[in-house]
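TOKENISE THE FOLD
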Amino acid sequence: MSSDFESYEQDFAVLTAEITGRIGKVPKLIGDEKKQMIANVEKQLEEARELLEQMELEVREIPPQSRGMYSSRMRSYKQEMGKLEADFKRSRIAYSDEVRNELLGDDGNSSENQRAHLLDNTERLERSSRRLEAGYQIAVETEQIGQEMLENLSHDREKIQRARERLRETDANLGKSSRILTGMLRR
């Protein structure tokens, strides 16, 4: 079951990387190329939404004790999807601003350079955020594994303590029987 989820995760990662790359290209294109790129990004965003839905269905079928790790991943993917949609919206606004500038005859070269620079910085921030989120996920998973190990060690400790108590009881019984046998030998 988790292999299906992991397969969807890989598809989602590839798809979001493509979307991010295309979103970055939108403000740099002109005319029909730009319209085509926007249409392609919209289709890919829809595919990404469908992948998220499939992943959610897979998470629902996972046993409850394992579900927490996958649920935290899903939250991260949903946040990433929200960021992609916001970036796409921003690139479309940039696109509509350019169309307006073309119609009004404004020269937006300096604002275009600033916009491109901001988009590059935004993309870098998003990559850093994704890395931080991945690190956070690893920390959460490590914490969960540590908790499971502590629980296992606690159960093992209880077993050892019970075995020690049985050994003490057996030792006490052997002592009693030894005293009884010694008493019988003396008589």
About this structure: The two ends are 73 Å apart (CA to CA). The CA atoms of residues 56 and 68 lie 12 Å apart.
